[in-house]
């Protein structure tokens, strides 16, 4: 799951809890004591969501379908694909604005410091509704990884398997909501 999906699954909590969910990928290690309690709870929530989605039957099935050369990177791409389906099937401008407000009011961890302002200014969370934009974002992440851009190489498969990906989303999203949105 990426920013938008984590926001959906944590929007029931406080702004600090939401913030923790949004920045968790930029926070390394298990020591969360430096963070306020609600932010730390959000970081832990994000990590639980990631652990569940990474082992979900639909995700495991898709990983087996992915091209072997890019399989190792497919989970990264799927995280953004889930945001695409949320943005296109369940647009929520108020949640997006809340995310931008929460992120804009607080300092992002160093690993996210350059990306967060670009995300807000570029309105990425709403633009994920456009699959071309989502694929460009996936390829952009691949530029930051070592070696050939395997995420860019994966985008033709994502386009070809769009219906399969959407079917997987329709199955897994209600399960994730049921498990994590209380």
What does this structure look like?
- It is a single chain.
- The chain has 182 residues and is mostly helical.
- The chain has one domain.
- It has eleven helices and no strands.
- 36% of the residues are buried.
- The model has no long low-confidence stretch (mean pLDDT 96).
Q: How many DSSP H or I helices?
A: 11
Compute the CA-based radius of gyration. 16 Å
The percent range for strand residues is: under 5%
Helicity level: over 70%
Alpha-carbon distance between the termini?
Answer: 18 Å
Structural class given helices, strands, pairing? Answer: mainly alpha
The secondary-structure element order is HHHHHHHHHHH
Average of per-residue pLDDT values: 96
The overall strand count is 0
Largest sheet: none
Number of domains: 1
Provide the low-confidence segments as ranges.
none
Identify the overall geometry: globular
Short description:
The chain has helices at residues 3-10, 15-23, 37-54, 57-65, 71-89, 93-105, 115-122, 124-127, 131-143, 150-160, 162-180. By secondary structure, the protein is mostly helical.
Main traits of this protein?
single chain, 182 residues, mainly alpha
Topology:
Elements: H1 3-10, H2 15-23, H3 37-54, H4 57-65, H5 71-89, H6 93-105, H7 115-122, H8 124-127, H9 131-143, H10 150-160, H11 162-180
Helix pairs in contact: 1-2, 2-3, 2-6, 4-5, 5-9, 5-10, 5-11, 9-10
